[in-house]
Amino acid sequence: EVQLVESGGGLVKPGGSLRLSCVASGFTFSTYSMNWVRQAPGKGLEWVSSISSSSTYIYYADSVKGRFTISRDNAKNSLYLQMNSLRAEDTAVYYCARINSYGYEKVDYWGQGTLVTVSS
Amino acid sequence: DIQMTQSPSSLSASVGDRVTITCRASQSITSNLNWYQQKPGKAPKLLIHAASSLHSGVPSRFSGSGSGTDFSFTISSLQPEDFAAYYCQQTYSTPWTFGQGTKVEIK
Question: Which residues does A108 contact at the CB level (< 8 Å), separation at least 6?
Answer without folding.
Answer: A98, A99, A100, B46, B49, B55
